[in-house]
């Protein structure tokens, strides 16, 4: 399971970086989303995968206290998911506005020359 | 996309999904669920409705702009965060009524925080979706 | 000491924003609420700083969970001073925006988002938990995205795409770093981390993790190879927004670096040298950019990059005196950079452009305002007795002491280029006559007096604080001295958060 996740994380990060380096805005957004998912799985993996163990243990059960699932990574991932949800939603609206205005998906068309500045 | 099957299905799905979202909201303190998930399920219910009947019909059910849910939800959450300060506890401490309430169970300030989150999530998701879909309609016309 | 009220500045801005959301589309009400809220924010921050000076480091355990397990908020001298300065800058920008932002942007919720941004800044300064720091960073960048795109002119959207992509990338680096750090140590509380990190066997792994944080914060604070997004986006939004960004956002990156590198990753030889090299290169590229730019706001953007280098250099030396220089410069920079962009906004109101080619004659027309602006410019250049002068002394002294001659040269270069760029701007914008054939569209002169006051008062307020810092340098140096002590010797911070150890 760990090995599988490690390979998946590598793939997600690699794909994310590749997509960010493309010129298309949609691919840029996809790349950012891949990177975010990769980071989330990384936290999940590094928090330690424990199967079938309770996260919260009663104080009286002293003997099981070394043997628990860590709930914090899941809280972190949930927070990160909520945040990336907001960011992605905003980014989609932004890219849509840009597309409507510039009528192009190419990041290179986004450079107004300095002379046209105000 | 006007499909009679989807339209008649959403008629029954909408209340069930809303009920399910409340269920998630209420059990969220000790079990899987909570304000964010509940809010997402509720907004999915409305999104499904707008898929089947178009955003205008959905706006009619909602009666008010979803944007107005955001300040309401935020104020409920913010008040429940700061309420413990009045009792001399740090912010966000859970304050609980002593007696459980029938059907709902124990009620504490964290439930109100979740309720606020629920409203904010519904407001934000619907606002974003309506913004995107209304723009699309304008472009088509 | 535990104090349940240190989150006051955060809550004030939260409630201000909520009230403004309730008053959606009522721009006059929103303006009034914004002014009152910002003013209350300043009062609360003054009280917070006062308490911290009297009682030492204050902490708050959110939800009453004890320190290493729950989220802890810590107000030490550095954070509470930064909260105060942020609130002052926020007050100035809020007053300025009430006339400097057009009504269309206010209708789309400029003010609530602005207060969410200030709330995020205050939260980032006060938190003592590294993941919570990430969350506040996200609050800041989401609000800044909205502020950046409000209004939706073409250039603004172009700047916003670059700004958004690079800032989300920075957050991803930061999040990855947090994930690895949690995997190594099993803790997120910064005070707890500073203890646990020493016990890790594989210090090489720690070094690699620290680069994730360095890159993440480096992008946010616009350090040399990662700064390109800043000059290509900061000239696009309205001046009041640019003032918040230029004055405060990059400085949060510096604050986070100070925190993380003083508490968790104490810089080793390699990191220090790396930071020094980055600092020198940042100053050089920033100055080169500032030399050729003839648009006022583009010029200021490059000056931001240039001056970030000064602060990075101080962190790179990581001695008490160098940190004093960095922290003092941080305080000065927030006030002056905010003010510079507000000034750019006023110039735009007076002439309708920011291009030096088409500007001129402002001194002849508005001598009093020009003198006020000159004062701010002098402070930026670092002429004694204004606030920009003192921190540079510390930086020079320490870099000569440690024989970092390249950094000394870069400091001299940076200061001279700042002087040159500002002098050129002064002669082009204020002294030169209006160029022939340019039809200056003056929106400032016909304004009613109240609006004029609202535009000039914030600049005067910030300038007064700059002079105050310059003249009372002794008090500030004492404060900075204590802050620097707390950063070099973190035992008081750890003790305040975790309680007495053994």
TrEMBL record, chain A:
- The residues that cross the membrane are 6-21, 28-52, 72-95
Q: Which domain of life is it from?
A: Bacteria
Record flagged with keyword Nucleus:
no
Keywords assigned by UniProt? Answer: Cell membrane, Membrane, Transmembrane, Transmembrane helix
Q: Which Gene3D superfamilies does the entry link to? A: 1.10.287.3510
The record's annotation in InterPro entries points to:
CPA3_antiporter_subunitC, NUOK/Mnh_C1-like
Membrane topology per record = Multi-pass membrane protein
Where in the cell is the protein located?
Cell membrane
Please report which protein family the annotation says this sequence is part of: Belongs to the CPA3 antiporters (TC 2.A.63) subunit C family.
Task: Enumerate the PANTHER family for this protein.
Answer: ANTIPORTER SUBUNIT MNHC2-RELATED (PTHR34583)
- What NCBIfam families has UniProt attached to this entry? PRK09094.1, PRK12659.1
Which protein, by its recorded name, is this? Na+/H+ antiporter subunit C
UniProtKB/TrEMBL annotation, chain B:
Transmembrane domains' residue ranges: 12-30, 36-55, 67-89, 101-132
| Main location group | membrane
Note the topology in the membrane.
Multi-pass membrane protein
Q: Which UniProt keywords apply?
A: Cell membrane, Membrane, Transmembrane, Transmembrane helix
Q: What superkingdom heads the lineage? A: Bacteria
* Span of domain Na+/H+ antiporter MnhB subunit-related protein: 5-127
Where does the record say this protein resides?
Answer: Cell membrane
InterPro entries from the xrefs? CPA3_antiporter_subunitB, MnhB
Please give the family membership noted in the entry.
Belongs to the CPA3 antiporters (TC 2.A.63) subunit B family.
Which protein, by its recorded name, is this?
Answer: Na+/H+ antiporter subunit B
Which source organism? Sphingobacterium bovistauri
TrEMBL record, chain C:
Q: Name one Pfam family in it.
A: Proton_antipo_M
> Which keywords accompany this UniProt record?
Cell membrane, Membrane, Transmembrane, Transmembrane helix
Q: Which InterPro entries match?
A: CPA3_Na-H_Antiporter_D, ND/Mrp_TM
Where in or outside the cell is it found? Cell membrane; Membrane
Task: Write down the membrane topology.
Answer: Multi-pass membrane protein
Q: Where is the NADH:quinone oxidoreductase/Mrp antiporter transmembrane domain?
A: 129-418
Q: Where is the signal peptide?
A: none
Q: What main location does UniProt list?
A: membrane
Record field: transmembrane: 6-24, 31-49, 69-95, 107-127, 133-151, 163-184, 204-230, 242-267, 273-292, 299-321, 327-348, 369-390, 402-423, 453-471
Q: Which family does it belong to?
A: Belongs to the CPA3 antiporters (TC 2.A.63) subunit D family.
Supply the name of the protein.
Answer: Na+/H+ antiporter subunit D
* Species this chain originates from: Sphingobacterium bovistauri
